[in-house]
Amino acid sequence: MTQSSGLLLSKYPLWLQWVGAFGVMLKLFACGLSVGWASPYLASFTSGTAPFPATTDEVSWMASTYQLGRFPGAILGAVGVQYFGGKIVIIGNAVVLLISWILVIVSNSVPWIYAARFLSGLCVEAANICYPLYLGDISSPSIRGTLMVLAINGLSLGIVAGYAIGPYVSMRVFSGIGVALIVGCIVIVTLLPQSPYYLVSNNKTKEAENSVLSYNRKADVQLEMDLIRKFVARTESITFTDRLRELNLPKNRKYGLILIALIFFMQTSGMNVLITYTESIATRGMLSLISPSTMPITMGGLTILGAWTSMYYVDKFERKTVWVFSTAGLALNLIALGTHFYLLDVGVDPSYLQWLFILSVSIYGAFSSMGMGSIPYILLSELFGSNIRTLAICICCSVGGLSGFVGIYGYQYLLEVIAESYIYWITGAWVFVALIFGLVLVPNTKGKTLTEIQDVLLEN
């Protein structure tokens, strides 16, 4: 090692943690592309401009098979992390997502798209399980939340890129972009060390010491190893039954239920609906100041801005404070959106309401990424002991997948039975309930090591 490179490593001892977060961000960017894919290309099937025909019912199933893939993705992700570690699962998950993009490239009929969308949903939910654990294991307490938000930002960036690129390129070219991103992720993550927590749990002491030093050049290796051994040993079990029994202990059951509730709130807060149907909502909202097809990009841009802004404060304030701030903004903007549709229903001239629609939808996107979209995944990486957290996260993310599916279908059902304004008002009231829930029950974990968090939780 040269003197200059040694000085660089000394000045930036945590640089490899940032590289790890960037590699995960590329993976989530590709996942975001698969989410953003829906808006332009489902519309192309509906309008008859797609490479091959599809009925209205088939287009609906293209949207829903993505959500259906999330449930098995949660199970496979949890099993994989338990036995192979977060790094290997991220790579394997990326390979499957690569296959999904290839299926779109070679597709010549609807079933190919079904398969691709199902695999995309599977990969997104598996990623939701493995990346919080991997980044939680390799990151220092002072920047853990920031690295998590950096990675999560990839999802928002990918969604907006899908909105922006989709209308101008073919499905096959779009999928080629996804392939390139996934290859970049695989190369970066392959070169990273395995998590020291995973290595210790598999009795690979020397490799774990090297991993600790790789991720923090200024670490006290023996102190870090002692903390890791303590964390791993505290929850060490042998059988699946042991893990279930331990998960049912009062402390773990309490925080497991809290996380399930946070994820359920997140999935039913209107995020999935607005991401999937922004253009349709803008059309029904009689948006004319800008094109309805531009509205997803506008909302997505504010979502990215909110996500990047949150990187600067997510580790400066308690998780509870960030959650409350985000849900308060979401509730107010949902109420404003409902008011827009109510005023349309009573005959107000749409030209006077353009500002209300654009602001409520755009600012909703910003607030969604400023806490509600990230806090549950930050807490997933922090709250559980090493031997049960994959099981706990599997359950939480399975609930997330199912509730996301229910949220999308529930929205379509409500559109047929009540005025659209009431849908947003009801959702706003529901998000306000989420605010109260978080204010009372979200634990404070900011700035603590994983071992310190377990010590605090045991005292409660």
UniProtKB/TrEMBL annotation:
Subcellular location: Membrane
Protein origin, superkingdom: Eukaryota
Pfam families assigned to the protein according to its UniProt record, in alphabetical order: Sugar_tr
Keywords: Glycoprotein, Membrane, Transmembrane, Transmembrane helix
Domain annotation Major facilitator superfamily (MFS) profile: ranges: 16-446
Keyword Electron transport on entry: no
Membrane disposition: Multi-pass membrane protein
Name of protein: Facilitated trehalose transporter Tret1
Encoding gene per record: LOC107218230
